[in-house]
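Q: Got a minute? One more chain.
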Amino acid sequence: MHRSRLPAAERRRQIVEVTTRLIAERGFWGLSMQDVADGCGVTVPGLLHHVGSKDGLLLAVLDHRDEADMQWVLAQAPGGLRETCAAVVRRNAGQPEIVRLFAVLEAESLTPDHPAHDYFRARQERTVETFSVLCGDAVLARQVVALMDGLQLQWLRFPSLDLVAEWEAGADRLFGPLTSGRE
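A: Always. Here it is, folded:
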């Protein structure tokens, strides 16, 4: 098999993309380093050179997604909590494979021995804290996260569901209907 040499940054990007797709399809426990290596046209030792271990591979995928999402959210510069969440839901509606990846990994990581257990716990705490700052209410922030996560799971199960419309209907119940002049 012919293996092409790519610059390290490009190879790492390729590894993250292939791994993202495979985890979304199979979950972390169904991921094999050989499948990732084959998908990238490298050997397993070559793959390990870039990521260190299977756990390192998973964390590279998660860090990459969080960084990309944070840059996008900051670029959108929405106002309050409702507007921020609406922007996130619109973004997620356009990337079902990423939403599926995070849903699968978050569910798997509920077991304490999962390599992303601490990552997802800290991510959830950061999200609730950030939302609490935006709305001034930790209980509301947790309810918003639950609504977003629950709607995304339903949308993944039933793709004909309009995620954005469902979010807006739920947001109207949590925040009250939008008044003219806003969003």
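A: Residues 54-76 form the longest helix (23 residues).
Q: Perfect, thanks.
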